[in-house]
Specification:
Blueprint lengths: L3 H16 L5 H8 L3 H8 L4 E2 L2 E2 L2 H10 L6 H4 L8 H16 L2 E6 L6 H8 L5 E5 L6 H11 L11 H11 L5 E5 L8 H14 L4 E7 L1 H11 L1 H10 E7 L4 H8 L8 H10 L3 H18 L9 H8 L2
Parallel strand pairs: 3-6, 3-7, 4-5, 5-6
Antiparallel strand pairs: 1-2
Length: about 325
């Protein structure tokens, strides 16, 4: 359940976002694939449409896009799934470990499972994982990487040049470095310059995975605008892997161990209303219950809309 407190937190974050003028309500509604009327209501602190409560799934989508951490009462129900996106990341990891390549991993939707699967990949003994934030700059990024390599904070070099030199000495051959959430620093050209330097250092020595939201499009745009700066980084990404939103084949794979048959109408409703794996993790048990009810004998069958309103508010 999405509590009133969580809804109010979403409202406050939306009001702050629109106050910056960086994005309009209409553009935001299109980005998150939620009707403008719902966005307007939620932004104004109204959580009903025509006296009908706005479904939790809309708030879940907004939690994802607004980068609000899910509270314990929400995450306690969450689960993770093996899917095609996870398979793709596992293949990328094998490629980087074997051939020491530079690979770009991109997702144009929130909740595609990118960070979960990358963190799972980071459990490999030869993998280092770094996650950037909006505050990350070149010194902070290099410091995070060096500390993962065992360099204490007190022994970090002062200049970026010396940090990269120390990284060259410390990074073991045949390992893989993952840098995630790069969309948060896409406006910082100095960070991209550092990524190019790391890509230079990686050749034949270690694998490098660069991951983020809309990264393929963003790097292509930067490459087209200034090839002198971005050509080397762009060309070094030998593989560019796109992660996908939930597809029918993913639902069949995820639910198959729990039910003999996934009803076609339930599949279509889920694809239409559950937009990412975080939402699916929250409503997994409810969708499974709805599917079991729909699949009962005809004389006991209840309309899908009735079941949905019963299980999912």
């Amino acid at each position: 359940m999405i509590t009133l407190e969580i809804k109010q937190q979403i409202t406050a974050k939306m009001q702050d976002l629109f106050a910056t003028g960086d994005i309009t309500q209409a553009a935001f509604a299109k980005k998150v694939q939620i009707d403008k009327a719902y966005i307007s209501q939620i932004k104004n602190g109204n959580y009903e449409i025509g006296k009908v409560a706005i479904a939790d799934s809309y708030f879940q989508t907004l939690l994802n896009h607004l980068e609000i951490d899910l509270p314990e009462e929400v995450t306690s129900k969450a689960r993770h799934f093996d899917n095609d996106n996870g398979d793709a990341i596992n293949m990328v990891l094998e490629l980087c470990l074997r051939d020491r390549q530079v690979v770009l991993i991109d997702s144009d939707i929130s909740g595609a499972g990118k960070t979960y699967h990358l963190k799972r990949a980071a459990k490999h003994p030869k993998v280092l994982y770094v996650k950037t934030t909006k505050e990350t700059n070149t010194p902070a990024l290099l410091a995070d990487i060096l500390q993962l390599l065992g360099v204490s904070k007190d022994n970090l070099p002062k200049s970026n040049h010396e940090k990269i030199k120390l990284f060259r000495e410390k990074m073991p051959q045949g390992w893989v470095l993952i840098i995630d959430e790069l969309e948060l620093v896409k406006k910082k050209s100095d960070v991209y310059s550092t990524l190019k330097d790391l890509a230079d250092e990686s050749e034949g020595k270690f694998g490098l995975i660069l991951a983020g939201f809309n990264m393929i499009k963003d790097l292509q745009k930067k490459y087209d605008a200034n090839r002198n700066i971005y050509s080397q980084l762009y060309s070094r990404c030998r593989a560019k892997v796109k992660l996908y939103k939930i597809r029918e084949q993913d639902l069949v794979r995820i639910f198959s161990p729990y039910t003999k048959k996934l009803n076609g109408d339930v599949i279509q409703w889920t694809l239409q209303h559950i937009h990412d794996y975080r939402q699916l993790s929250i409503y997994f048990n409810e969708i499974l219950a709805i599917n079991d009810e729909v699949s009962t004998a005809p004389e006991r069958r209840v309309a899908l809309s009735t079941l949905i309103s019963h299980y999912i508010n």
